[in-house]
Amino acid sequence: MHAAPLVALVGNPNAGKSALFNALTGARQKVGNYPGVTVERHSGRLALDDGRPVELVDLPGTYSLDPASADERVTRDVVTGRGKFERAPDALVVVVDAANLDNHLRFALQLIALGRPVVVALNMVDLAERDGLTLDPAILSRELGVPVVPTVAVRKRGLDDLRAALTDLVGRHAVTAPAEVEEDMVVLQRRARTIAQRAVVNETPGRRWGHALDAVALHPLFGPLLLLALLFVMFQAVFAWSEAPIGWIEEGFTALEAFVSGLLPDGFFRSLITDGLIAGVGAVIVFLPQILILFLFILVLEASGYMVRAAFLMDRMMARVGLSGRAFIPLLSSFACAVPGIMATRTIDDEKDRLTTILIAPLMTCSARLPVYTIIIGAFIPDRTVGGWVGLQGLVLFGLYVLGILGAFVAALALRRTVTKGASSGFMMEMPKYQWPQWRDVTLGLWSRVEIFLKRAGTTIALTTVILWALLSYPKPPEGSPVSQVDYSVAGRIANGLEVIVRPIGFNRDITLALIPAMAAREVAVAAIGTVYAIDDPEAEGGQKAITENLRDRWSLPTALAFLMWFVFAPQCISTIAVTRRETNGWKWPAFMVGYLFAAAYIMAGITYWLAVALGL
Ligand SMILES: Nc1nc2c(ncn2[C@@H]2O[C@H](COP(=O)(O)OP(=O)(O)OP(=O)(O)O)[C@@H](O)[C@H]2O)c(=O)[nH]1
Ligand SMILES: [Mg+2]
């Protein structure tokens, strides 16, 4: 079969390629207001005006065709048709940022010189206008010798013209011999600047509130204070705003449990559904509102352009522990999940920088840890304020996140002196323009979190919970036996056997029961505790309230604190181990990562436990 013509979206990072890709194909690739969002090629279908289908590929942004990092290699291979599975593209859509034209034109000139059919998408013309800059696409087109179409990807403006230009290009313009590519960057930059200046029709000093904002956001003193304040508000909100929706979800599950109990006779199926699925999966799902609040903050900060400023502020501190400035975005992504975070390290060109970042990525508190943290905090940290207005629970949560970051910094420092010895490179990142978040992007981002979370709850978490339920429910102790169901069960016996290992750090049988299945996904720890207490205490009403009370009755405060500390460090996640193996091509580094993190978790949990006991908590 004849494959559809291939059209590639290329350009500098943060030019709006993915936004344009989404607008043209209806896909939902992640867009974010910082460079390095896309790290892999993604393709989609687009129909030209005459009905011909083309395959459109979205590529990682890059500054030139000399790849420095793994993601940039992807772009070079697609554009030149050189990679193993690549065919040369039939046309290129070169995406440039209208408000940053001279920088973006440098790469555009190199791409045009390749001799393939090219159309330039002059994107973000809305932002250029906001800053008082008016450009003439016709002049630009004449200077570059290729069609130029003004677009606003996020408002779907200019898409028809772009499609028309592509219809005209694809298959009708032959590939010409590559022109002489200017090798000297300085000369190229000068040419780009001259062309950009000719295309300017009007330049009035627009509202420069971005500069005013940066005077604060990047200020050596106020900048870090602002960052701290933002993070602080974020963690307070996680508790303060989630109370009501969590209540609704809990009520829903209690009602569901009552409904199922009324429907089914006492026995195997009723226990499987109420003690297993509802108690376990329900215990996890109640945390959805908190996860969404956290992501609402992260997505808004990302889309506004603030995150790169935060990276810039952190750069000095990161350089001091031997991390490259480029590590910031991968580490930031790891707050959602270490898996995309580790994949995002492909933007780091230095191998040792990259390896260090991969090894510490699991220390960033991923969203799967949030349910574990909040259930323990909810049970053991009183819901009161310190100093009159600061919520103590939010403060403790904030502390746990900070602890993960500090742990990562200490680990980076140690790794940089030993296994990944070498110098780190400094920070180099363009500052994106500030803008109001596109609510569509934020909503889509939140929705994708809901999908990911519910899918995990419905698959990994549900499955592990059911297996655990079965192992906890059988065999049944003989009538009148003093041994409890849980202790008599297969899982209980295993847990009781393993308890010797974790007793020194203050863990009990219930924790052992929770930790092993939690390797599948961290939230399973919460599901497991829910299931254990549902089986151990079938009279109690279901839902989180019962779990919280059970926790308070059965765990001491030092044990609870040690458990929290364990989760700050422990590599409790098989997917992370798998992606580390894939990104480092072997078992050596994942094995090392698991080893050092478990050791850290054990030691830190132990110290916490004994310190808390010594303090008489
Ligand atoms: N105002 C405005 N914002 C835009 C436009 N196009 C993209 N954006 C925003 O610019 C940011 C970057 O867009 P992306 O599509 O992620 O950029 P990209 O070129 O794919 O970036 P990388 O994947 O990092 O190379 C996002 O915050 C978008 O919402 C536009 O035409 N106008
Ligand atoms: Mg992109």
From TrEMBL:
Transmembrane regions: 216-239, 276-301, 321-343, 355-381, 393-415, 560-579, 591-612
Record flagged with keyword Cell membrane: yes
Q: Which UniProt keywords apply?
A: Cell inner membrane, Cell membrane, GTP-binding, Ion transport, Iron, Iron transport, Membrane, Nucleotide-binding, Transmembrane, Transmembrane helix, Transport
Broad class of where this protein is predominantly found: membrane
Alphabetical GO CC annotations of the entry are: plasma membrane
User: Residue ranges of the FeoB-type G domain?
Assistant: 4-172
| Membrane topology, record value | Multi-pass membrane protein
Sorted alphabetically, which InterPro entries does this protein's record hold?
A: Fe2_transport_prot_B_C, FeoB_GTPase, G_FEOB_dom, Gate_dom, GTP-bd, P-loop_NTPase
Where found, per UniProt?
A: Cell inner membrane
Please name the GO terms that the record assigns under molecular function. Answer: ferrous iron transmembrane transporter activity; GTP binding
Q: Which PANTHER family match?
A: FE(2+) TRANSPORTER FEOB (PTHR43185:SF1), FERROUS IRON TRANSPORT PROTEIN B (PTHR43185)
Q: What is this protein called?
A: Fe(2+) transporter FeoB
Q: Which organism is it from?
A: Sphingomonas rubra
